[in-house]
Amino acid sequence: MDKSKLQILIKKIFNNYILLSISPIIFYILTFNNPYYSDDYQSILGVHLLNKINKKNLLDITDFTLLRSDGHYNPVMYMFHNLIPPNAIFFHFVVVSLFLLSVYLTYFFLLKVSKNSEFAFISSFFFSINFSLIIKPLVWNVFHSHITNYFTGIISYIFFYYFIVRKKYIFLMSFIFFGILTVFNMESGLIYYIFLPFFIKYFLINHTKFIKIFFYSIIPILIYFSFVFYLSQYSNTDTLLQQRVFSENKLSLMDSGLPLKEKIIEYRGRKAPRDLIGYGLRISENIISSFNLSSYEYIYRYFNNSFYKNLIIIIFMLNIFLYFYCFIHLRYRNYKKNFINLLLLNFFIFFIYSIIFFRKDINILLSLSIGMLFAHIILFLCTKLKIKKLLFIAFLTPSVMYAMTGFEEIYEMKSRSYINEMYKDFNSIKYKDYDSLNELHYKTDAVYYYYFKYFDEYSEYLTNSYGNLGIYEFESILLKDNIISN
What is the domain range of residue 154? Predict the structure, then answer.
């Protein structure tokens, strides 16, 4: 490549990085004052409160040798909570910054493996704007682990790629290190190493050593399950796998006597029964979210005026029609043989999230695989510039409209305005005035904030009552504390 072409390529790549910055930066500007919410107080602020009680800067190593009562084992998440200062706004800044870096790294990785700058850019761009799939981990601080394990996960992907092409074990060791950080951050990180060998196979089509690649790629999974199984032998707590997959499913809610609206809300929740209706609803939600259409629900909830609500429904239907119009005008004979493989990759990742994990709100990797699918469609199946533009508009419109609401409504969470008001109420508590929160939703979460804020006044009591507890016990038992109500 001559010097002039190289300069043009470098300029193009630099411009792509600038364009990829737009969505995360706009998101941060609209949500920069994001306060703590619900479990944030227990799992984030609780870490710093326990450190104060024990006069330490870091949690004890023994805190990382136990399973949580709900079966989770995520020591990296708690270490992250420990290292980030106890300031909700700064915490949110760190999470969004890691998301921005993740978008950059995704582009870098896809550029390396695909050798196609346009494919890498479009995939990364669609990944960064699919707020239907990524909004909750970006807004709820305690859910950051699904963002941070994508960050360490994509770094591990890069090292794995270099190991495959350069065959140097320093890259393999780096891959294993970041893989361990990923799977011990949150169990959702396991999916990255189920997906990785098939992902690599898709791009390195001529690579014949698939079995060897597969074995190396699942090393983080083997380490995770070996360690968690070992811990479970010395614990009365079942692992998350035992609790979520091997335990008996909840009974169906259809005969529960609940009103229909409440049944639907329960079925859409994280702890919904794994029955035919539950799976059907979860699959439907993930299909809608994959096309970035779930954002319309949050936009609809934002408006109280019936005119605007009806308008959102009309726009939603037009958006669906626009997708149909584009897809019937694609030239499927131009699909190239690896398009089928890409469809299978998406089906595989979709199946894991919908059936195995049974979740909608943590599907970060699905956002990437869908972005790759749209990139392939736009580059290789669209023969008309008009169709390319319409597909961009169809995918981008929900995110733009959602941003115009300030990302006010989010899946199962309370509205951002409500959360901000609740935090102001928490912050307004005066010493020995905790009872003023009696009518406030999530009052028990304020216990952590109250004791943190007035630690000097309660230090002796807190030390005597909770100084011998680990973080898992502390974050659940403090909810039952009653001295502040006396």
Answer: 33-242
